[in-house]
Amino acid sequence: MTSVLAVHGLQRRYGAVTAVDGISFEVGAGEVFGLLGPNGAGKTTTLESILGLVRPDAGRIEIEGDADPARARAKIGAVLQATGLADKITPREALTVFGAFYSAPLAPQMLLERFGLTEKAHAAFDTLSGGQKQRLALALAFAGNPRLLLLDEPTTGLDPRMRREVQDHIAAIRQERRAVLLATHDMAEAERLCDRIAVIAQGRIVATGAPRELIAASGAATLEDMILKQTARA
User: Fold this and answer.
1) pLDDT of residue 1
2) Which of 60, 100, 109, 157 is least enclosed by beta carbons within 10 angstroms?
């Protein structure tokens, strides 16, 4: 497996609180890797460190072997928990603006078609439904033709049909040999999408592996039960 993202000994403290405590993992091309754990476990801090939104206190982050933050950011697309855009900007305008920050962006029209937004290309952002806004968030993450996608709770708050639609888009990314790092609380989503997962508790990784293998090894009946067992021991 060719590594796209490599995290080595990542640590981040906020005062006396250690949010991330020396974690290490890799995500390969064509792999969906899940970060699972309770609130406050360190998932979002990990994603923010990879994105360069916070500076780690220790550790090394490499994108395709490159640890330079500026070059690494050019290879990353992200969907965070909330996407804030100007109320009256349209999907086509947003994709054009985002693409202007990259040297070889994907064409806005192609992204509109891929994520089912062609009919809403000229609609104001504040008129889009929740599902349409989330599909636009995914399209914006692709604007720079990234090698790595970071997704932080990408289906939270969506109705079941829209959740499944967004999950289908995420599953399709695997076929393009991009790497996906997915932070989620949705156990069914993790089982469906993730090739491997890392369970985080109190800033440390306490288990890593394929979901079904971890369930079998723990003697749990479900992924949720396995995570409860692992986090209780941390």
Assistant:
1) 64
2) 100
